[in-house]
Amino acid sequence: MTTSAPPSTDGTSTRSAGRRSVTALMCACVLVAQSLVAAMNLAIPKIAASDLHPTPAQLLWIVDTYVLVFAGLLIPAGALGDRYGRKGTLLTGLAVFGTGALLSALAPTLPVLLAGRAVSGAGAALLVPATMSVLLHASPPGRKAAAIAAWSTAMGVGGLVGNAGGALILQYLPWQGLFWGYVPLALLLLGWVARSAPAVPRQTATLDLPGSALLVLGSFALLFGIIEGPGLGWASTPVLGAFALALLLFTVFVRHGLRAAHPVLDPRLFRLPRLRAGSAGIAVGFFGMFALFYVNAQFLQYVKGYAPLRTGFAIVPLAFGMLAVTRYGMRLAQRIGEARTSGAALLLVATGLLLLSTADAGTPYLRYLAYLLLMAVGAGLAMPTLSHAIVTSVPAHQAGMGSGLQGAARELGAALGIAVVGTALSVRYAAGTGHGTSAAAAFTDAAALGYRIAAAVVLVVGAVVTVGLRSRRPAGVTPVEASASPTLDLKST
User: Fold this and answer.
1) At CA 100, angle to CA 425 and CA 25, rounded to 5?
2) Which residues, in sequence order, are CB contacts of 174 under 8 Å at separation 6+?
3) CB of 94 within 8 A of CB of 127?
4) Residue 461 pLDDT more than 50?
5) What is the DSSP letter of 70?
6) In the Cβ-directed half-sphere of 176, how many Cα atoms lie within 13 Å?
7) Which of 190, 271, 396, 409 is the most buried (most CB within 10 A)?
């Protein structure tokens, strides 16, 4: 009598290990791309004191050029990946990202540094939507929500990793060392992706070059008005012209999207209330978080007297706070609803910003840390819930556009947070020192104003997001079906 051997589980174990490897790889790629935004904040004091002699507005451009190009090209980059292959687009993005970092490290002048930042931003735009597409392709239906949560966490934690990694580099090296550090990282990820990432079937996608150009130029005009307003005058012709041009370009962008056969972003998508609310929520969440990153790095160095290394690691607990609560975000949303979860989470972010506005040179670090952890809880609960709301609102055949949209919302929110708070910071600081106030006291007052402005924006938009997420899905359509259904009629939604 013979007995059959139990079925082998080697194949299942191998597939599970492969999925975990792909998840780790995709999260590592987006984490590196996102970390460069925050790492730059630690370099601001050294760049300000360098031979480049940047003005306050130019310092903002050094930070925001990367974020602006990143945000403006994310959506067309998603379509590019759909058309030409997500793995190839991811490899190209990593190569371009590394090239931009190398150019920035070698930059002898400010224009070359800005060009390097723009090139790196273009590379980040190529790789980020491709990572989401590869990750969703590699994840079975039952694991897609967990994969989205892990990817969202990597995006959020990327800024904190940038603070810590940048701190280690800038403690011992000049500002150029920061960019040198990203060159081997890009090469390492390039080899890992080439070896381990699965090939994803291509989908039909048409590139919309006019729409992409309108989106990038409109974003640039808007940020130009915000950043250059203090120096040129808010009522000056260039600044008013920039705001008017931004309004015109975005209007033309919407009209073009409604008429084009294959727009880079179909405006009709925003008829979906959950997608509209999710996009706004992600944008304002990153607005608040990157306002924090921009001010915090300078506050701790200028006001508290921290060295770069101590500054970077002072905010690291924020990452652990986000990681600790992110896994509960989706569970809480399933229990009390997306609207309540996101609304409460954004309220925590705003409260943390308001509490940070009370900090000064005498504030104990543990109290300061408590304010940071309050923001961490809010961001950790909000981001997976809001990302899931977007992804499950977009038809499967527009997955590239959907992942690009949420990425663009993140980066545009970050860019606006840096621009708005940085502008308020420079104006208030200049006014304070101009009236004889000490540099530390003037910066403390300016940081408080910046944080309060950011908190007000998060509160107002958070209320709108909460209302938007209360909209019900069509009867009988579950989140999985909504994300997989290619027949969702946007024109009649």
Assistant:
1) 95
2) 46, 50
3) yes
4) yes
5) H
6) 13
7) 409
